[in-house]
Amino acid sequence: MALWISTDLSDLRARIGAWKREGLRVGFVPTMGNLHAGHFSLVKLARKHADKVVASVFVNPTQFGPNEDFARYPRTPEADAAGLADAGCELLWMPSVDAMYPYGSDGAVRMRVPGVTEVLEGAHRPGHFDGVATVVARLFHQVQPDVAAFGRKDYQQLAVIRYMVRDLAFPIELLPGDTLREGDGLAMSSRNQYLSAEERPRAALIHRTLQAMREGIAAGRQRADVEAQAAAALATGGFEVDYAAIRAPDLTEPDDAPGPRVALIAARLGRTRLIDNLEFTA
Ligand code: PAF
To answer: Distance between CA atoms of 106 and 47, rounded to whole angstroms?
Structure first.
């Protein structure tokens, strides 16, 4: 499939406008590039719900903290474009930082989603979700998609975007995409490539620990015990743990009544911070 790469907002708008005048539905997959099979599965998901698929590649400075990996975040535009074309994407939007933030990132109008941004990832990465909501709102205005696909691996990000879409009445249907995993269970992520050869097999402990958390709850154990045991198992495996938590789907602390739950982990192995989650019913 031929892929057009747009680096100019008026070109992007002209192309999408022409599709809309033909009555075509537009699907959207926002990314920060360095694409892997997980991203391509989101393109395929969007394609099922739309006639044309747009992806964006933009490493967004406003969602990185001062000591995070913005400068070294892997940038692989040629491979990304080739993979997107194979996955069935028609249009790649690659804005510059100046095009995205004409007043600079310090002068940008910011979004802030209350509540769900303040816990877990939000507590450990202050300002991160403000940056995500800020750029996703801009991307939605630029692309004006009918549907947009986001991975379930970034569970809390999806919750933040869902809140924003509802609160600001964006006429966009969100499509959550399942997490793709390596053979040993490690969730696919661009950050996995930071892992050394020695760390890589150890990283699968995150997924095994999530499964153990689910089994602990199924066995009737107290949530606090299950969380503490998960954190201890990760620490023994050499991780520095930010959180190992079991939450209700809206990320609040659940009561004891049966119902849907999500186990979430964020932990650092060496210099690589990994996140993952597992949804289940208690
Ligand atoms: O999930 C990501 O890759 C990013 O957070 C997103 C949604 C593209 C915003 O920069």
So the answer is: 36
Give catalytic residues, as residue numbers: 39
194: left (phi over 0), alpha (psi -120 to 50) or beta: alpha
Of 142, 177, 212, which residue sits at a domain end?
177
Q: What is the pLDDT of residues 260-276, one digit of tens each?
A: 999 999 999 999 999 99
Strands 26-31 and 4-6: unpaired
User: Whose alpha carbon is nearest atom 6 of ligand 1?
Assistant: 31
Ligand 1 pocket mutation pick from 40, 64, 100, 132 by most atoms within 8 angstroms of CB: 132
Rounded CA separation 20/24 (Å): 5
Same domain, residue pair 237 and 215? yes
The answer to whether residue 1 scores a pLDDT higher than 90 is no
Q: What is the pLDDT of residue 256?
A: 86
In this structure, are 152 and 45 located in the same domain? yes
Ligand 1, CB within 6 Å, residue ranges: 30-32, 60, 63, 132, 135-136, 154, 157
- Looking at the DSSP bridge assignments, the partners of residue 240 are 268
Q: Count CB-CB contacts under 10 A for residue 142.
A: 20
Q: Nearest residue CA, atom 1 of ligand 1?
A: 31
Element (H, E) at 83: helix 77-87
* 85 shares its domain with 209: no
Q: What is the CA(74)–ligand 1 centre distance, in A?
A: 14
pLDDT above 70 covers a percentage of the chain that reads: 100
- Give, for 247, the enclosing helix (H) or strand (E): strand 240-247
Q: Which atom of ligand 1 is nearest the CA belonging to 60?
A: 10
pTM of the predicted protein model: 0.97
Nearest CA to ligand 1 atom 8: 31
Buried b (16+ CB within 10 A) or exposed e, 33-55: bbbbebbbbbbebbbeebebbbb
